[in-house]
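Marked as duplicate of an earlier ticket. Keeping the data here for the record.
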Amino acid sequence: EFSGIQHSFFAAAAFHLLKNVQIGLKLEYLLGTRNVYLDEIYSGYPFTFTQSEKHRMHTLIPTIGAAIQLLPSWKIAASLVYPLRGQSNCTLNRVFISPQTRIEIKDLKSNDTLYTPARISIGTTAGFLPAPFNPREYRLTVGAELMYVAWSTYKYEFYSQFLPRQMRNTLIFALAMQWGIYNGNKNYFLRLGYRRDPQPVKNPSVT
């Protein structure tokens, strides 16, 4: 059983480096909790195992991006998200019960490392068929994005021991389309999108 909550605080800024080049910066602070509860009963070997974990996590995630306006109707952009290694304060409770014994661990503390994978993305948008009331807008806008996620370096620190998580890097592909209906003061937009996000886990039964 999993539960928790995450809070995000961020500050961002954008400026023009050249006439057609825009730079964006973002700094995000994540603060949250993650609770895990595990209850297992083994019938072949009569014992039960119960474990609960309470994590208090925080990390900083800086982002830098750039967009280039190649044509009035065509733009390309790229960004790098490079999370810093965060901290996770964990409290562990564990109970092992068998017909012969009972072993209980209460409030075991640890300061673990919170890892979030880095991401590199590149995307483009193109507009077709200028809008009748605003020549800077387009009836049809098409966009595409590729995102590379560095999952293979993901390690989880469990009580000062780094454990590999058997993950592989993934390439996410997204495609979107927008059709604008311009009617003077009232405009309407129809949007359609597709996103393919592969599974990063090599062996789900192990990880």
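See parent ticket for discussion. The radius of gyration is 24 Å.
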